[in-house]
Design goal:
The protein is α/β, with parallel strands linked by helices. It contains 11 helices and 12 strands. The chain has an 8-stranded mixed sheet, sandwiched between helices. Helix 3 packs across helix 4, helix 4 packs across helix 6 and helix 6 runs parallel beside helix 7.
Amino acid sequence: MDGLLAVTDLEVGFATESGLARVLDHVNFRIGRGEIVGLVGESGCGKTTLARAILGVLPANSARIGSGAIDFEGRNLLDEDTASLADDVRGRQITFVPQDPFSSFNPVFTIGAQIDELMKWKSPAAEHGGGMRRYPRARRRADRERVLELLRTVQLPDPEAILRKYPHEVSGGQRQRLMIALALLPEPKLIIADEPTTALDVTIQAQILKLLRRLATDRRVSVLFTTHDLGTAYEICDRITVMYAGQEVESAPSDEFFAAPRHVYTTRLLQSLPSREHGISGIPGQIPGLVEPPSGCRFHPRCDSASAICRAGRPGVTVVGPDHLVRCYHPVEGGAGEAAA
């Protein structure tokens, strides 16, 4: 598949009172054009930090990028100056759907006024470059028609009325559809969706997932979908990458991932899904601290198969199948995940 984004050897830490927390440990990650890639793992594994690094919105006062590259269509985003990144990439070629739709709008302005402000700066017809720009009447009318068309596309009834409302006057599901529409308005090449269905009930969640899947297919937009919910990842993703304590440990096409996981952590994660056969099970041990993380593979303190080599150094990438990569000295034999999936 034609590559759109490639993260290579990315290392990110955060300054804390206890020392530098190594949140991303030489992470490698990629997304193809028109592909939905799920980034999954337990809370605190580094999913959101990776998404923020791609967007270029890591906190400047505490984040430390030690090494690596974020290649987006031949441009290393880590080398871009702040103004160029904000004007040409963030909010235009790469957009964002947040986890919480309830705090994503300013409560004192109508939805239409806030969308107009976005379109003034990020419309495909808007000029690039800093400084205030006029919003010509002809372009404003064209942008408004585009907004209404897209609100209909995301299945919002009576979009003209919705634009006149304040954020508190629409439901959570409608707000998340609005956030998806806002992410699509600049005609991006990549949408980063950070657990966008967490705050929604299950029926609305299913509708949002189907909508994202259809829009990605129809418009050939790539999606980075971060989630800790494996069921959600199964429903929407073409390929899945698993992270643990700041390290990527396995990447595989969705069907292969659920049928035959190869990393010990991945198999235990899948076995943690409740089922009638084995009830509810967890993974023994605790997620390690990131100020002084374990040496080598960070999962080795919780791994039954760990050996001295696992503690000595992080394993390299092993190709175990078509587009199926795993970082493990003792990969599980194929087929271990069928019952759990």
